[in-house]
């Protein structure tokens, strides 16, 4: 397989054995040629100075996608259901029961469907998150929504929204953050005043106009 390096622009080849190795480890195929990977590794190039807890060897692991708020809502709805039973209000009992079951099974579903996270070298990208933890958290929360197959794909798409001059943009008066919005794809990116990515997700025209 031949690919184009996203760092130097040169074409490089990935052998069938390498492809099998990456697939067996459930890893994304390299997006940089071997020379650029070795260069980044030996020089310790981290791009724009920023706080980071990224390791020297990039980790791959499964991250929990379940939200504790879903479990809390399920418990609160269950308590409300018991109160409505005492009040003998059947419609409210049924409503609370359905809401409780929905929230509980939603929590179980997300708990079972964890998201695989592969850390990577962020130096080729002009914009990145404040640190690794922040990027992982936002990717786990919005990766599927933004149709991203990897965390690097998530960061790449966020950068594409930012550099697209045809997108809408404005600066928030309150904190100085800059917002980028594509009304066609509804992609929404926020860049902090300090220059790092705060978040990237799918929004709406109404949401953008409120900001």
Poorly predicted ranges: 44-56
The biggest beta sheet is recorded as: 4 strands, antiparallel
How many β-strand stretches? 8
Helix content: 40-55%
The figure for the number of domains is: 3
Average pLDDT figure: 83
Key traits:
alpha+beta; globular; Nuclear Transport Factor 2, Chain: A; two-stranded antiparallel sheet; 211 residues; single chain; four-stranded antiparallel β-sheet; 3 domains
List the helices and strands and how they pair.
Layout: E1 2-4, E2 11-13, H1 16-24, H2 34-43, E3 60-63, H3 68-87, H4 90-112, E4 115-118, H5 132-142, H6 151-163, E5 168-171, E6 178-182, E7 187-191, E8 197-202, H7 205-210
Antiparallel strand pairs: 1-2, 3-4, 5-6, 6-7, 7-8
Helix pairs in contact: 3-4
Could you please describe the fold and organization of this structure?
The chain has 211 residues and is of the alpha+beta class. The protein has 3 domains: 1-45, no CATH class; 46-65 and 114-210, Nuclear Transport Factor 2, Chain: A (Roll); 68-112. Helix content is 44%, strand content 16%. The protein has helices spanning 16-24, 34-43, 68-87, 90-112, 132-142, 151-163, 205-210, and strands at residues 2-4, 11-13, 60-63, 115-118, 168-171, 178-182, 187-191, 197-202. The strands form 3 sheets. A 4-stranded antiparallel β-sheet has the order 5-6-7-8. Strands 1-2 form a two-stranded antiparallel ribbon. It has a two-stranded antiparallel ribbon with strand order 3-4. Strand 6 and strand 7 form a beta hairpin. Mean pLDDT is 83; it is low at 44-56.
């Amino acid at each position: 397989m031949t690919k184009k390096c996203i760092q130097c622009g040169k074409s490089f080849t990935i052998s069938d054995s390498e492809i099998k190795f990456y697939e067996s480890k459930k890893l994304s195929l390299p997006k940089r040629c071997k020379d650029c990977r070795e260069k980044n590794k030996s020089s310790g190039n981290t791009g724009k100075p920023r706080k980071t807890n990224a390791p020297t060897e990039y980790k791959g692991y499964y991250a929990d996608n379940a939200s504790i708020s879903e479990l809390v809502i399920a418990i609160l709805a269950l308590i409300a259901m018991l109160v409505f039973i005492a009040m003998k209000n059947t419609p409210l009992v049924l409503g609370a029961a359905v809401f409780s079951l929905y929230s509980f099974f939603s929590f179980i579903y997300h708990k079972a469907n964890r998201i695989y996270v592969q850390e990577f070298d962020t130096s080729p990208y002009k914009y990145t998150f404040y640190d690794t933890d922040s990027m992982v958290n936002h990717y786990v929360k919005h990766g599927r929504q933004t149709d991203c197959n990897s965390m690097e794909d998530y960061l790449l798409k966020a950068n594409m929204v930012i550099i697209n001059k045809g997108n809408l943009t404005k600066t928030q008066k309150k904190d100085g953050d800059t917002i980028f919005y594509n009304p066609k794809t509804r992609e929404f990116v926020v860049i902090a005043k300090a220059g790092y990515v705060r978040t990237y997700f799918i929004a709406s025209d109404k949401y953008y106009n409120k900001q």
